[in-house]
Specification:
The complex is a heterotrimer of chains A (216), B (542) and C (99).
Chain A (H helix, E strand, L loop, with lengths): L2 H5 L8 H36 L1 H9 L3 H27 L2 H31 L2 E2 L3 E2 L6 H37 L9 H25 L6
Antiparallel strand pairs in A: 1-2
Helix pairs in contact in A: 2-3, 2-6, 2-7, 3-6, 4-5, 4-7, 5-6, 6-7
Chain B lengths: L1 H7 L11 H5 L4 H29 L10 H36 L8 H23 L13 H5 L4 H28 L12 H33 L12 H35 L6 H14 L15 H13 L1 H15 L8 H24 L1 H7 L3 H31 L1 E2 L2 H28 L13 H31 L1 E2 L37 H10 L1
Antiparallel strand pairs in B: 1-2
Helix pairs in contact in B: 3-4, 3-5, 3-17, 4-7, 4-8, 4-9, 4-15, 5-7, 7-8, 8-9, 8-10, 9-12, 9-13, 9-15, 10-12, 12-13, 13-15, 13-16, 15-16, 15-17, 16-17
Chain C lengths: L7 H22 L5 H22 L7 H26 L3 H6 L1
Classes of the chains: A mainly alpha (216), B mainly alpha (542), C mainly alpha (99).
Chain lengths: 216, 542, 99
């Protein structure tokens, strides 16, 4: 066991390896709670999509598919950048690590920028339930329900993105301080797990909000 | 003389550091357990005060003490505080926090800082809820049923929901901590089947909490969004579905019942072998029945909605699955009784509580089967029968076990013995007071007295008066331990490391334990836990 | 067990696969296949999610317990949605049989 590795181990653990394994279990169990949290919203969405099929398709037809699919590609690319960052961390290459972290943060910000452009468009089209919602179609209340779920779910996703960006900034700062080495880089891996998980959520959000109305 | 005595006192987790800050910034799981004990005691007596007010109001068939509106707020705040700020955190956050690292032979939980953070989150959630209370309370009932909670109630629903939402994160973090600790922090030689049953039950409990609490969070979030943004997620006039709320709420709240009783079972599984001087009967069956309860507990939530418009076919399935969950619960009860059978039983206070638990839990469980039956449930739904049923599980079960556990481990926690005679007396008072409070409610419910009413027909007065009388006795039974346990902390006899001659790693350490629990990391060689036969030989040798 | 390490090539391939599947599911969505549209969209999304979890989050290369936790989360979500939908789907059955 190298001296560095010993330093990185907290007192309640016998070895750094035990510490990493324990923390990994904790991290994944946390992600399981996130599955259930978004799962509750997916369940509610599914129930309402079954009871309001036309309204949900009509609502989905109002989505900007171009921005939506570009955003999906952007988010997947940010995940790739972060995967590269994890790889650099494992190799102990701090310069590459900070480069890829910055790339992830920038791409993540672009995603949020595009997302808020979309929100702004919906608002201008008076499709913001609770604030300003107008629709003359016979399915108006169903379309409103679609948009309620659209805003709650993508909004919660955006909150997760923002938290993720905050985590990445802290990780970047710690990288500059030289905290992470080839022996100790668990926080980078966990930042990655969180970010990739948020990615997975988006993959499903894209499928249930952007695609159903596309054939119209 | 005093100095000599002081010199004898070893460094332990209580006296190693002193001062308020050393407590508020501690990462020691034992001190955090004490912080939690303090907080949940406050919440328990706050919730108990509301219960007492309700019982007093129900002395008379007419409103005489509080208005009907205030009564609604009383039972809501009683429910919210007792469920989320006492029952769910009670055993896990106090005894669990204290004992899990000790029982697995670790220096601390896996993430000590997170453990402290979760106490602060809990207190924040508690403060927000108490704020809602002082602003005028909530009148929706602890279940927040829509559309009343979203469209009609004019009380502080959002504030209370936010408080519970925040407290939920504390629960999740504690559960994550336990899962990671139990998986990877066990002492050398401590395999899964050498673990005390406490650990198995707490593990099952943590798994349930991790999987169901996020659903509560998201459901409350939707309620808050609906109230604030005036959109119709659960509002039928806007295309929403109130029954969906019930589905999501009970997906959380039914397993939540098991998160109240699984830790109680954890405590009982420790007390019964220790005071019967026998290994736990059918160790593996009891271990897997905890997992069985955790899994099956998630498949039965629909039995809360039999009369809410749920489809008959779905109700049939949920009814059947609800019967299934009785099997692992019964396995536990049978195995505890089989452990007591032909044991050399000593009737110390923890054992009195454990015996009380087994009896009351059985009554609560069997009346649960009444409610799982489709036909009977229509008759007794939303009556005092339901109230009596779940109080037998939660007060007769969870609170009895909590008190039993506190008495059992108090010598370990404080290093002092409490006055045994007084403790036995108060265990008896709790048992009698409890039954006098809640048994009449079974009859009330069966005769048709609906829950959540401040006034009632005069023919029910006799039973209500009995129930109120019982509640005052129960109150005395709860105040007594509070007094003598605090007294014992200061003036009790020295307990020594193992006053009950019990097995388990926590008893191998001194009382109170040192900050890092063990002088040397223990190595476990015993083939099974609760090896009281081997212990008998050891004691005879001594 | 040691920390799983992945080659850059695998990361790149996973990313290309994800982009390809995004394109595929978007193109298929332009065709109206009725209920199959939804099945295909959710199916492809599940495949994409598995790629992210398996490779980018290296769940495939972790210990068994990690995969159990992940499976637990997914299965419990499926329990919630299945039993809830079972209620809604079987609501009309009784009325239908009386007709």
């Amino acid at each position: 066991m190298s001296e560095l590795a010993t330093l990185a181990c907290r007192e309640q653990f016998a070895t750094p390896e035990q510490q990493r394994e324990t923390a990994t279990i904790g991290m994944w169990a946390f992600l399981a709670t996130e599955i259930m949290m978004f799962g509750g919203l997916f369940t509610a969405y599914t129930v309402y999509r079954m009871s309001h099929p036309q309204g949900f398709e009509a609502g989905s037809a109002d989505m900007n598919i171009l921005l939506g699919s570009i955003n999906t590609a952007i988010l997947l690319t940010s995940s790739l950048m972060l995967a590269f960052a994890e790889h650099s961390a494992q190799a102990g290459n701090q310069r590459l690590l900070s480069f890829f972290l910055i790339a992830t943060i920038v791409i993540g910000l672009v995603f949020l920028g595009i997302k808020f452009t979309e929100y702004y468009q919906h608002f201008q089209e008076h499709k913001a339930p609770g604030l300003w919602f107008e629709d003359s179609s016979p399915h108006a209340s169903s379309i409103q329900m679609f948009f309620v779920f659209y805003f709650i779910m993508t909004g919660l996703h955006a909150v997760h993105m923002t938290v993720g960006l905050g985590i990445l900034l802290v990780l970047l700062f710690r990288t500059f301080l030289g905290t992470f080495t080839a022996h100790y880089h668990t926080p980078i891996m966990f930042g990655g797990l969180y970010w990739h998980f948020v990615d997975i959520v988006w993959i499903f959000l894209y499928a249930i909000f952007y695609l159903p109305g596309l054939h119209k | 003389m005093i100095q000599a005595a002081a010199a004898r006192i070893k460094k332990n987790y209580l006296n190693e550091k002193i001062g308020l800050l050393s407590w508020l910034l501690t990462t020691d799981h034992k001190r955090i357990a004490i912080l939690y004990t303090f907080s949940i005691t406050v919440f328990f007596f706050l919730g108990g005060f509301f219960a007492l007010m309700m019982r007093l109001e129900l002395l008379s068939p007419r409103n005489w003490l509080v208005s009907a509106g205030t009564y609604n707020k009383l039972f809501t705040m009683h429910g919210i505080i007792m469920v989320w700020f006492f029952l769910i955190p009670s055993i896990p956050s106090t005894l669990g926090n204290f004992l899990i690292p000790m029982m697995v032979g670790a220096k601390d939980v896996a993430f000590p800082k997170l453990n402290l953070v979760s106490w602060y989150i809990f207190m924040l959630g508690g403060c927000v809820t108490v704020y809602a209370l002082f602003r005028g309370g909530v009148d929706t009932g602890w279940t927040f049923y829509t559309p009343f909670s979203t469209s009609y109630s004019t009380t502080y629903v959002v504030a209370a929901a936010v408080g519970i939402f925040i407290a939920g994160f504390s629960t999740i973090l504690t559960a994550l901590n336990f899962i990671a600790t139990i998986h990877r922090m066990r002492a050398p030689g401590l395999t899964w089947f050498r673990l005390p049953m406490f650990i198995w039950s707490m593990y099952a409990n943590s798994v349930v909490l991790v999987l169901n609490t996020p659903v509560l969070a998201i459901t409350l979030l939707m309620i808050a969004v609906e109230r604030i943004a005036k959109v119709g997620i659960f509002d039928p006039t806007l295309g929403g579905d109130p029954v969906l709320f019930q589905h999501m709420f009970w997906f959380y709240s039914h397993p939540a019942v098991y998160t109240m009783v699984l830790p109680a079972m954890a405590v009982i599984s420790e007390i019964v072998p220790a005071f019967s001087r026998k290994p736990l009967f059918g160790y593996k069956a009891v271990a897997f029945s905890s997992i069985g309860i955790a899994v099956l507990g998630f498949l039965v939530w629909g039995h809360h909605m039999f009369v809410a418009g749920e489809s008959t076919y779905s109700a049939l399935v949920f009814s059947f699955l609800s019967y299934c969950v009785a099997v692992p619960s019964a396995i536990k009860v049978f195995n505890w009784t089989a452990t007591i059978h032909r044991g050399s039983v000593s009737w110390d206070t923890p054992m009195l509580y454990a015996i009380g638990f087994i009896g009351l839990f059985t009554i609560g469980g069997v009346t649960g089967l009444f409610l799982a039956a489709l036909g009977l449930d229509v008759h007794v739904h939303d009556t005092y029968f339901v109230i009596a049923h779940f109080h037998y599980i939660m007060v007769g079960g969870a609170v009895m076990a909590f008190l039993g556990g506190v008495h059992y481990w108090w010598p370990k926690i404080s290093g002092k013995m409490y006055p045994e005679g007084l403790a036995r007396l108060s265990a008896l008072i709790v048992f009698l007071g409890f039954n006098l409070t809640f048994f009449p409610q079974f009859i009330l419910g069966y005769l048709g007295m609906p829950r959540r009413y401040a006034a009632y027909p005069e023919e029910f007065q006799m039973l209500h008066v009995l129930s109120t009388a019982g509640a005052t006795i129960l109150g005395v039974g709860y105040v007594l331990p509070l007094c003598y346990l605090i007294w014992a902390w200061q003036y009790g006899k020295e307990a020594g490391p193992n006053p009950w001659r019990a097995t388990g790693l926590e008893w191998k350490s001194s009382s109170p334990p040192p900050t890092h629990n063990f002088e040397v990391t223990p190595v476990v060689t015993a083939k099974q836990p609760y090896d009281y036969e081997a212990m008998k030989e050891e004691l005879q040798l001594v | 067990m040691n920390e799983p390490t992945m080659s850059l090539k695998k990361y790149l391939l996973a990313w290309l696969g994800l982009l390809g599947l995004t394109l595929l599911t978007t193109l298929i969505a332009f065709v109206n296949l009725g209920v199959w549209s939804t099945v295909i969209q959710i199916g492809i999304a599940t495949i994409m999610a598995s790629i992210v979890a398996g490779f980018l989050m290296h769940a495939l290369y972790e210990e068994k317990i990690i995969r159990i936790i992940l499976a637990g989360g997914v299965i419990w979500f499926l329990i919630m949605i299945t039993l809830t939908l079972a209620d809604y789907a079987s609501r009309g059955w009784l009325a239908f049989s009386h007709r």
